[in-house]
Amino acid sequence: MTTIPPVGDVSTATAPAAPPAPKQTLDAEVFLQLLVAQMKNQDPSSPLDTNEMMAQTTQLAMMEQLTALTSTSSEHFALTMRQTAAALVGQQASYVDADGKTQTGRVTQVSFEKGVPLVTIGGTAVPLDVVSGISATS
Questions:
Q1: For labelling alongside 134, which of 38, 82, 105, 115 has CA 20 to 30 A away?
Q2: Where in this protein does the record put region Disordered (predicted)?
């Protein structure tokens, strides 16, 4: 005997597509949308103060410049990490392994495949930020 689902059962119906997730950051696009909405909905008898609009526009420009500066700083930091890792090739380096023991060996290779460069010390690839010491080769 087969059972017929009740009329109100929606388990077999396809759900409508979920709305896109709202933005989590205030970027230039959102700022301009807010500014346009503010201008569209302003009271004609009391228009938007031009000084206030200039202040908001200046804030937008400052926000864009800070975003660009942050991006440039991140790129500079990544480049510095790569240069530092490359300079370690041929040097004696040490690191603390997962067991808490200090391991020492010669840096033979550097990999830039991930965000943090991986240096190969004594045959083991470790992230650059785990290296705890460098000594001159003899």
A1: 115
A2: 1-22
- Starting at the earlier edge strand, list the strands of the sheet with 131-135: 124-127, 118-121, 102-111, 92-96, 131-135
**Model-level pTM greater than 0.85?**
no
Question: What is the CATH number for 107?
Answer: 2.30.30
Number of domains in the chain: 1
Per the structure, the complete domain to which residue 127 belongs is given by: 50-138
Cα–Cα–Cα angle for 68, 72, 73, rounded to 5 degrees:
115
Q: How many residues does the chain have?
A: 138
Mean pLDDT lowest among 10-14, 28-32, 114-118: 10-14
Q: Is residue 79 part of a domain?
A: yes
Does a structural domain hold residue 123?
Answer: yes
Task: Work out whether strand 131-135 and strand 124-127 pair parallel, antiparallel, or are unpaired.
Answer: unpaired
Q: Does position 10 have pLDDT exceeding 60, yes or no?
A: no
What is the chain's mean pLDDT, rounded? 81
